[in-house]
């Protein structure tokens, strides 16, 4: 068990000192992940990488969080998901104010091209939600690979899947999402 994993377990148990001690150990990696997410956002984004890291970290380690992490990979997978959810919530809020129409996203699925308009980001996220209902394992790999920036092999490790299963899931997810977004 690594130092980060021990600190995360202690923080999940309510140890505030451990929660404060883990951030400096993972901050640079979380900031790179956040910067990658924000680079794919539309121009005029007011959220900074630092603010996204802090908000996601509060969701992961804060008083309402009861998650235990099975290691560094699991923690970063959860961080990527928390950042994705925060950005999706912001896009929904901006669209609710506009009440405009939506268009389908035509995205290259090895990464989200930047910047995506809010409508396309929400279309992609909705398609990913439908994939999760059809095949949760494939959706998990796609979520970590596309949003989290993890390789398929890293996604496999974070999810506890074999590399072969993760590559099968990714191949299926990519084809499924392309069909869903084209349709």
- Note the main sheet: none
Q: State which percent range the strand residues make up.
A: under 5%
Helix content: over 70%
Number of domains: 2
Query: Based on helices, strands and strand pairing, what is the structural class?
Result: mainly alpha
Task: Describe what you observe in this structure.
Helix content is 72%, strand content 0%. The longest helix has 27 residues, at 72-98. It has 2 domains: 1-100; 103-183, Arc Repressor Mutant, subunit A (Orthogonal Bundle). It is globular. The chain has 183 residues and is mostly helical. The protein has 8 helices and no strands.
How would you summarize the topology of this molecule?
Layout: H1 3-12, H2 16-39, H3 49-61, H4 72-98, H5 118-134, H6 136-147, H7 152-159, H8 163-182
Summarize the structure.
By secondary structure, the chain is mainly α.
Provide the descriptors you would attach to this structure in a database record:
183 residues, mainly alpha, Arc Repressor Mutant, subunit A, 2 domains, 8 helices
């Amino acid at each position: 068990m690594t130092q980060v994993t021990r600190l995360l377990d202690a923080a999940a148990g309510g140890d505030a000192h451990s929660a404060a001690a883990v951030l400096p150990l993972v901050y640079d990696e979380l900031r790179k992940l956040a910067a990658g997410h924000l680079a794919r956002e539309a121009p005029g984004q007011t959220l900074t990488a630092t603010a996204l890291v802090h908000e996601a970290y509060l969701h992961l380690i804060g008083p309402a969080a009861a998650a235990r992490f099975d290691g560094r990979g699991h923690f970063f997978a959860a961080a990527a998901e928390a950042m994705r959810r925060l950005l999706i919530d912001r896009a929904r809020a901006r669209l609710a104010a506009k009440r405009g129409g939506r268009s389908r996203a035509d995205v290259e699925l090895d990464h989200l091209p930047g910047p995506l308009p809010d409508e396309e980001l929400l279309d992609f996220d909705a398609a990913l939600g439908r994939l999760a209902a059809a095949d949760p394992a494939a959706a998990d790999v796609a979520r970590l690979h596309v949003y989290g920036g993890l390789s398929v092999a890293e996604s496999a490790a974070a999810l506890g899947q074999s590399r072969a299963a993760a590559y099968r899931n990714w191949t299926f997810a990519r084809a499924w999402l392309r069909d869903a977004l084209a349709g």
